[in-house]
Design goal:
With 283 residues, this protein is of the alpha/beta class. The chain contains 9 helices and 7 strands, in the order αβαβαβαβαβαβαααβ. A 7-stranded parallel beta sheet has the order 3-2-1-4-5-6-7, sandwiched between helices. Bound molecules: NADP nicotinamide-adenine-dinucleotide phosphate.
């Protein structure tokens, strides 16, 4: 009889643990964060990490403006996917490094879609070129898109938000390379480390006016940018063996953290840069 009592207790304990695990982690597509009624603009969202972020924000209740440098089938299919989930979506073209296009993007999105609450500065480019071979042109384009772009989009966004007397939220996408040295990135890595300083400094100036600013540094995430690693049978296991979680990240792994930072649940977090890398830099 004592035996049966212990079994029943065990059963109840495990059932309770399963339920609370489901409550904590949930299943993809479940809504945990209240982004209902919020409008987000995600740059570079036609594919890769930007797409993952746009889809998770929509699952958590937000309507999403999908930006890309050229609005093609990719951007349209992201918007379509979001609409199928019952959220509003629009596509909006702009090169994030071009002031006239960025100003036009916010004007179009704000007027046609409504006041933007959340900006995710995701668009980025990476090239791998040895330091001694890097040209002025390559340095300028990479740092323009990866560092000046987020600064520019944030400035235009903040001006709209403040003019409308509203609150806002910015999440910047940096890179593990803000902390980890990989060869041939003397242009990309400084731009991504710069995002951290940009985040802290914008946070200090904007948070008192109601606009929080945070940064997510992705580790190794399976996208077109990293396809050359994903497809290399020697390099892939060598990198994965350095990641504590034991697998490449997926765009949604970044999306869920961005959604938390963009939500009121993280209301006391600002100016922070968080590595979402499966434990790569600390292994
Ligand atoms: P991706 O697959 O190459 O996608 C990048 C997207 O950004 C593309 O849709 C691209 O458009 C768009 N884009 C490029 N330049 C743009 C510009 N000037 N204006 C607007 N859109 C632009 O890259 P990803 O892997 O998803 O990376 C997304 C972000 O995460 C980047 O900032 C990247 O540096 C960062 N990151 C990625 C990893 C990773 O492991 N994947 C790791 C650390 C950080 P097109 O298709 O037309 O070129």
């Amino acid at each position: 009889m004592r035996h049966w009592g212990a079994r029943i207790l065990c059963f109840r304990f495990y059932r309770q643990r399963e339920t609370s695990a489901r409550e904590t982690h949930g299943t993809p597509g479940e809504q945990h964060l209240n982004l209902q009624g919020k409008i987000a603009l995600v740059t570079g969202a036609a594919r890769g990490i930007g797409r993952g972020i746009a889809e998770v924000l929509a699952e958590q209740g937000a309507d999403v403006a999908v930006n890309d440098i050229c609005v093609n089938d990719g951007a349209e299919s992201v918007a379509q996917h979001i609409r199928q989930q019952g959220r509003r979506a629009m596509t909006v073209q702009a090169d994030v490094a071009n002031r006239a296009q960025v100003e036009g993007m916010f004007e179009k999105a704000w007027n046609e879609f409504g006041p933007i609450d959340i900006l995710v500065n995701n668009a980025g480019i990476e090239t791998i070129t040895p330091f001694l071979k890097l040209t002025d042109q390559e340095w300028t384009r990479v740092t323009d898109v990866d560092l000046r772009g987020p600064w520019l989009c944030s400035q235009v966004f903040c001006r709209w938000v403040l003019a409308a007397g509203r609150k806002g939220n910015i999440v910047n996408i940096g890179s593990i390379q803000a902390a980890k040295i990989l060869p041939g990135r003397t242009h990309y890595a400084p731009a991504k480390l710069g995002i951290e300083a940009l985040t802290r400094n914008m946070s200090a100036e904007m948070t008192p006016s109601g606009i929080r600013v945070n940064c997510v540094h992705p580790g190794f995430i399976a996208t077109d940018m990293t396809a050359w690693i994903m497809n290399d049978p020697e390099i892939l296991p060598a990198i994965v063996s350095q990641i504590s979680v034991g697998r490449p990240g997926q765009p949604r792994d970044i999306g869920t953290v961005v959604a938390f930072l963009a939500s009121d649940d993280s209301g006391y977090v600002t100016g922070q840069s968080l590595h979402v890398d499966g434990g790569w830099i600390y292994k």
